[in-house]
Amino acid sequence: MKFKILLALIFVNLLQAQKFYFPKTAVNDSVILEKQIPGLAQQVIPLLQSAKYKPENTVDLMDNLFRLQLVAHDYKNSLASLFENRKLFADHNMGDYRYIGFELYALAKMEQEENNTSFSNALQKVFNQKYESLPEKLIPRLELALNGDVNASRKLLKNFLDKQKDKDSIDYKTALALCKNYLNYKTYSSIKPQVMQLLASKDKERFIIETKDLKINGNTLSVTIVRRKEYTSPLPVILTNNIYAGPIDGFFGKRAATYNYVGVVVNTRGKRNSNDVNNPFEHESQDIYEVIDWVSKQPWCNGKVGMIGGSYLGFSQWAAVKKLHPALKTIVPQVAVGIGIDYPAQNNIFMSYMLQWIQYVTNNKFTDEADFANAVKWDSIYTKWYKSGKAFRSLDTISGKPSKIFQRWLDHPGYDGYWQKMVPYKEDFSKINIPILTTTGYYDDDQIGALYYFKQHHLYNKNANHYLVIGPYNHGGAQSFGFTYVNGNPIDPVARISIDDLAFSWFDYILKGGKKPEILKDRINFQVMNTNTWKHVADLDKMHNSSLKFYLQDKKNTSSVFNKPETKNFTTQIVDLNRDQKDTYYKVSKKDSIKMTNSVAFESEVLDKDIIMSGNLSGVFNVSINKRDFDTDTSLYQIQPDGKSSLLSTHIVRASYSKNNEKRQLLEPNKMEQIPINNSYFMSKKIEKGSKLLLLVGVNKSPNWQINYGSGKDVSDETVKDSGKPMEIKWYNDSYVEIPVYKD
Predict the structure, then answer these.
(1) Which residues contact 250 (CB under 8 A, 6 or more apart)?
(2) What is the SS3 assignment for 284-351?
(3) CB neighbours (10 Å) of residue 217?
(4) Amino acid 488: pLDDT
(5) Is the pLDDT of residue 12 over 70?
């Protein structure tokens, strides 16, 4: 009895310290692990739901909960939590493919127990039932959803178990991660071989899938063609140019076929079966022309071709229209990379991520998912470079894998002929007379690129038949569907649309003479966040009809930061580029603060009425600096009446390229200079009465970007030795950020 009481006291003490008993023998003995981990999951569940550990976002809560319940063998409740997660993730059943591997595993376990059958038989039964019950338009997503990486999950599980060597207790955070990694490995090692065979069999019943290797411009390109079996007459083709060779090729092809088109996916040089050199972005324009020429002459094509895809695939469509093939009737570029505009440099500042991405698409013939997802590895590489003070050019060497592509990109810091030849440039846009539908989002990493093409097309072609749909979507959402939550916040119900349905309705309209998509009431179609409405205008300038100029002045010295200061003054900022400065934070409320290291903060008065911000930040910084160059970093936040903060827009630019992104113009030290604000992130949102606006302006200095030490040399070649004295900037109070405002 005393022994039981002692054990209970030990358990209570461990729980109070957020630790759980977990025998060290489980680390190396899979039988013991199998017995112990369900009990561990049962102990973690109450803490997950406690005030201290409960995630703010209910989607994340249900995500973790269904996994723990599944590990604890509580299959029925696990499925209920998983279904709730899906409902919270996306409306209109758009996310019903989400976590389908875990669903099949739970259903098979329940079937196995209820009918005393083998797991294999149970899995086959529940798979067939699930497949038949799914909406047809979700079928193309199954291969990606079920293609869990068993080897990667095995390694991750081993890593977490290794951390528990010689320990008999485990903390909450590690226990949660261990349970989740155990579940990943257990689920996909149990179901993957069988379900992938079952899916392949189902696909064979529904589709004709062919792969070919084409000789294009003396190079080999791999092509995947997908057709529905019941369609024997020629159809329009929906073409996707894809550098991310792998299972996603099948998704793109099957998606097009499901919408009653022929789906064709071509991989870029060096991918899949191609032994050619893989130089991302460089050959799309010439290669895609020849691919379209081949496609248009095939017996299953009726001579009409449309293109679709996001990110790199969006860029590819702009490359394709640089030399327009007569058979290409329309393109739907989604979240399109603005090559040389927002990637690999944003406003002429190169990003560290470019090296990670280069290796992702060039390490092998497909994509190196494990390396790309290794955040610990890449963070350590960026940090090592940052702390070393070495030139940005050394980043690839520090990673252990020198890259000719990385070095070649760095040789072109301005928007020069190297970038210009990849996509339409200036007058090239005037020759693009096919209809185009662009989609992007307020939280899209490539929004600046997507809008660049849209603006340039309308600038050089006054009759451009080019529509834009933009809303509260991130990089993934604006090329698939509107998630219920973005950045942890719910989006308005009217924004929760299927971008897939929109795109293929557009194809029906252009390629089959169908009805124009209802949402396209004008050239610009944008969702105003927090109003649950869409608005429609003829051009970007009509998205707003007023503006607020936020001047760089302390609200203590003025009745309003929106009034031009009567007396000229400045705020001095010192940034020591030789060493890290201690992180500083702007306290928004008791619960919220914003990191503002290397920035100066300007806060507005409380807004006495609602305003609708709609468009891009513009304006000008009047500065003097003791260097020949620097990179500005600007962020605009809303401080909500409840004390929470939300990011409205950001802007970075290399000062020496701010007036002309093609030609560098160095600053004259200690002389007043003007830095225009262009190509900021776009937003349309109602900002409630009682809110405040917080403007942070400062110097871009981070492991995630090049560091501009201000010497005037090529920034890629600068080292910490070039920094000299600390950077001293005078931000003059007649500088302003202009906020576009829509008034009814």
Answers:
(1) 140, 143, 203, 209, 224, 226
(2) HHHHHHHHHHHHHCCCCEEEEEEEEEECHHHHHHHHHHHHCCCCEEEEEEECCCCECCCECEECCEEE
(3) 12
(4) 84
(5) no
Residue 246 CA to residue 34 CA, distance in Å, equals 33
Q: Is 174 left (phi over 0), alpha (psi -120 to 50) or beta?
A: alpha
Q: Which of 409, 470, 399 is nearest to 440 (CA)?
A: 470
Residue 83 is classified by DSSP as: H
Please work out, in degrees rounded to the nearest 5, the angle formed at the alpha carbon of residue 225 by the alpha carbons of 221 and 229.
165
Neighbours of 563 (CB within 10 A): 11
pLDDT digits (tens, 9 = 90+) for 666-694: 999 999 999 999 999 999 999 999 999 99
Q: Could you tell me where the beta strands, DSSP code E, fall in 640-691?
A: 645-654, 673-676, 682-687
Task: Round to whole Å and give the CA distance between 652 and 709.
Answer: 16
Cα(350)–Cα(649) distance, integer angstroms: 20
Contacts of 501 (CB under 8 A, 6+ apart): 137
Token reading at 324: 């327009």
SS3 114: helix
In this prediction, residue 17 carries a pLDDT of 53
Q: What's the burial of 626, exposed, middle or buried (CB within 10 Å: 0-12/13-18/19+)?
A: middle
SS3 of residue 236 by DSSP = strand
Question: CB within 8 A of 282, min separation 6: which ones?
Answer: 422
Q: Is the pLDDT of residue 579 over 90?
A: no
| Geometric angle at alpha carbon 449, from 446 and 450, rounded to 5° | 85
Crossing angle of helices 100-115/58-71, nearest 10°?
Answer: 30
Residue 642 burial (CB < 10 Å; 0-12/13-18/19+)? exposed
425, HSE (Cβ side, Cα atoms, 13 Å): 14
- Give the DSSP letter of residue 51: T
Tell me how far apart the terminal alpha carbons of the chain are, to the nearest angstrom: 76
For 411-533, where are the alpha helices, taking DSSP H only? 417-420, 447-460, 499-511
| pLDDT given at position 56 | 81
